[in-house]
């Protein structure tokens, strides 16, 4: 959706500054040169004085004409929600409501954190003319960002003066996580091509599936799936078809503490976690499950589990401005709150980035939640560790680095094994691997009947 904002041509606010142009400096230099010539040719003194007086009158009149020029009318059309890391168009419409030709330079006051293409722009507008400009913004961070107005530089009719005017055009840009992964998933799901995303089909087993319908036997159906009564009636093999259990709950416990500030390939760990969270939420809602969220690590938000079609949009509204803090995370306190808030059995997905000193509390949190819920811990690691192991070893320093990283990853693997020992499903992932890994694990849990 697009929002349009406009102001009348007479409205102007903010700082206004006057400055002479390069043309004025050139004229002044010529007049000064004429004054130097007077020292050798005194007969030119009268001419020099007359030229100076004429230039003063022209400059004064040009200045008065500039100040009398009304500011142009301006309106902006921009998307209500911009995706993070994607170029988005912004359209500006400029209208000259005055009776004089308007020469100006325009610069929209976009957030300084955004990349921009197509600004500033120079315009020449005839009286009563209108022009439409388009430029592009690419936000690098999520959240709310103000756009207070537009900066203009107007030239006087003779080009001797330039005046800066700031037109108030208040707007608020909302930057959301990039939804392209979900859009791609939707397209592939429509064409039954989920394997292109890396989503695997898992053989269903156990009793966690609900009966859906009877159908003709297909190659690969198990004997337990055959309905022998229907087979005897129809005189051909008939199989029962099941669907995954519905009306279950998926709750995210999302770390927003200092560990999630790490960057990989220019993207923050929390950004990747939010993309994965929204993708899995979309899949779960399509499966008929309720989705909820609790955050910890400085930012505390609670989104009660729900399964309406609007759940993903509401969840997006609740998390789009989340930023990692500088606080140390306390997963055990968050687990106690979640244990009280979700009395019914659910799949709890903890997304974090842990270190050795965090493992004790993380294990306590997982053990507490394991009493009632099925728990998955998705623990992110930095890709620089993997790259460090791939680097060639040429000297003692390289060897020490290699063994240090190996020791650290080995200790991390032992922590993962302890989590699995207490019945928690542990995932050790790069941030880029998180979205599809979570979807695969969720579908595997659904089809195994473990939830």
TrEMBL record:
Pfam families: DUF58. The keyword Transmembrane helix applies. Residues 214-385 form the DUF58 domain. The chain crosses the membrane at residues 21-41, 47-66. Keywords: Membrane, Transmembrane, Transmembrane helix. InterPro entries: DUF58 (IPR002881), vWFA_dom_sf (IPR036465). This is DUF58 domain-containing protein.
